[in-house]
Amino acid sequence: MTPVVQAHNLGLTFPTADGDVVALSDVNLTIEKGDFVSFIGPSGCGKTTFLRTIADLEQPTSGTLEINGQMPENARKDRAYGYVFQAPALYPWRTIEKNVALPLEIMGYSAAQQAERIKRTLDLVNLSGFENKYPWQLSGGMQQRASIARALAFDADLLLMDEPFGALDEIVRDHLNSELLKLWERTKKTICFVTHSIPEAVYLSTKIVVMSPRPGRVTDVIESNLPRERPLDIRETPEFLQIAARVRDGLRAGHSYEEMV
Ligand SMILES: Nc1ncnc2c1ncn2[C@@H]1O[C@H](COP(=O)(O)OP(=O)(O)OP(=O)(O)O)[C@@H](O)[C@H]1O
């Protein structure tokens, strides 16, 4: 089966006024269909850049990257992915339903198809009944769920999520994490998820990619052996803590003392 994402010696250097910034260096990674992959690492290690490169919003300067066996540009044109940003990025003058409809309008779906997809995706993120509300009438967690609905509306198999719950308090975040796992189980999507949180990465993922900065590179890829069914209290089990310890070791190894002071 063709992997969903295949990076081979991938590099990306940004030329800047102060010299080159190596955002990604020699990244080798394979993501299979149905994987839930978290990217974790300190600020500036290239997590967002990697997601943006998958989305064809940045161009690699070396190596190769294939999405569903295609160049990222072709995958983007095929609408291979939905993208959820750090902040909800909803249009305040559009209702929730009209925000979810936006990509469908752009893609020329009929009114009936739009209505069917809006209903299905709002159901999936538990926002039925909020169709006619404006974003500012919803809590931060609900707004982020609406952004997820928008990214799911056109049924892309790949969901790219850049720290979607980073700005939310811990209780809401816990709730959305378990909702996201259920949604992933139900829809069988492939998810790439950026986070700064070790427990979040371990709780959600089938695979954890540990990255380190200067230059941004992958230092460890951890395959999780936790069961797919994950109640929140799985976070207290020895198996969970063992994976978390390995992530922490990987983060520590990628951090030199000079960078921390
Ligand atoms: N357009 C750009 N031009 C120049 N440098 C850039 C650009 N985009 C990112 N960078 C640099 O590339 C490196 C990687 O950035 P990136 O945003 O991918 O890191 P990150 O791991 O997502 O960080 P954070 O956790 O803070 O979001 C950083 O040093 C950043 O300053």
Automatic annotation (TrEMBL):
Q: Which PROSITE patterns match?
A: ABC_TRANSPORTER_1, ABC_TRANSPORTER_2
Name the InterPro entries for this protein. AAA+_ATPase, ABC_transporter-like_ATP-bd, ABC_transporter-like_CS, ABC_transporter_ATP-bind, P-loop_NTPase
Q: Which UniProt keywords apply?
A: ATP-binding, Nucleotide-binding, Transport
The molecular function terms of the Gene Ontology recorded here are: ATP binding; ATP hydrolysis activity
Q: Which residues form the ABC transporter domain?
A: 5-238
Provide the family line.
Belongs to the ABC transporter superfamily.
What's the protein name? NitT/TauT family transport system ATP-binding protein
